[in-house]
Amino acid sequence: MIVVLSPQATKENLSHVTQMLEERGYAVHVSEGIERTIVGAVGVPADPTQKAEVMEQFESLPYVDKVVPVSKPYKIVNKQFRPTPTVIEVRGLRIGDPTFTVVMAGPCTVETEPQLRESARAIKAAGAHILRGGAYKPSTSPYSFHGHGETALRMLSAAREEFSLPVITEVMDVRDVELVCKYADILQIGTRNMANYNLLREVGKTQTPVMLKRGMAATIEEWLQAAEYIASQGNKQIMLCERGIRTFETYTRNTFDINAIPALKELSHLPVIADPSHATGKSSLVNAVSRGAVAAGADGLIIEVHPNPEKALKDGAQSLLPEAFAKLMQDLAPICQAVGRHL
């Protein structure tokens, strides 16, 4: 349930409500807005049969405006819990700011230092804000290239310092979370790990922002519950990434679910990022789908860019050449402006 305090409530009142909820077996999460403070009570109380009675007790307090039951299985990431959008700050960037569209770009996989530096230089010149690159790469085939690991993390860190670009990279294993946090500004959870609950809990114990990709066959509710796993451990710096879902269509790699963007905006306060590269699997479609995602309300994009896609070790077919990425950034500008944003 959610306890909405009145505008006149004091810090002492908030402390009292928190104590009362904890005594009844709830975990408490506080969201302080400009005008009101919302207290989320999450979990199973000591005596679940007395929930209605507990709600009545809190509603009788003079500094409580109302008590609202939350029927959805996800609580902390629910928009009822936090009506205002979550904004995540990463090295001066504000991801989720309703007036700003963030663009993450770079190669699917960190292959060599020259390849990464050339990619970083190109995306920086075109106006991208964050460098992406895979140090650890999941793959359907056990014989595919799986990344250079810590060597690639060090290359990403060096590129960040040289080009002043924050870094996002994927973490795949609970054992690697601490290591990746040493190098990355944002942790990426890939589609195959959306339901890896041990990994979600572990990244939830960090204070490093997390981008959670949708499972390739996950419903929106399952996706939001995965985000809840992270938030329940204390890390609320979460962004949701729509990367396409698996359907009967075979022309594209996946099917980009543009419905998910406005749906998430209705259901959650978390920033929404779109990944047209994995959604389509075709570089020729990335520009159009990117524009559509921004028009639908996405807070940002993550785009694969490679200086030589035909020689890429992973996902060359969906990677943009630097000049195509520069064209995309130009094409996005008027779309952003039309929806009240800027790049």
End-to-end distance, in Å? Answer: 38 Å
Fraction of residues in helix: 25-40%
Q: Overall mean pLDDT score?
A: 94
Give the CA-based shape: elongated
The side-by-side strand order for the widest beta sheet comes to 7-8-9-10-11-12-13-14
Brief overview:
The chain has 343 residues and is of the alpha/beta class. 36% of the residues lie in helices and 17% in strands.
Tags for this model:
343 residues; alpha/beta; eight-stranded parallel beta barrel; 11 helices
Written description of the protein model:
The protein has helices at residues 11-23, 51-59, 113-126, 150-163, 177-183, 197-204, 220-232, 260-267, 276-280, 283-296, 322-338; strands at residues 2-5, 27-32, 37-42, 64-68, 88-90, 93-95, 102-106, 130-132, 167-170, 186-189, 210-213, 238-242, 272-274, 300-304. The mean pLDDT is 94. The strands form three sheets. The protein has an eight-stranded parallel beta barrel, surrounded by six helices. It has a four-stranded antiparallel beta sheet with strand order 2-3-1-4. The chain has a two-stranded antiparallel sheet with strand order 5-6. The chain is an alpha/beta fold and 343 residues long. Helices cover 36% and strands 17% of the residues. It is elongated, with a radius of gyration of 21 Å. A hairpin with a 4-residue loop joins strand 2 and strand 3. The protein starts with a strand and ends in a 5-residue tail after the last helix. The protein has eleven helices and 14 strands. The longest helix is centred in the last third of the chain and has 17 residues, at 322-338.
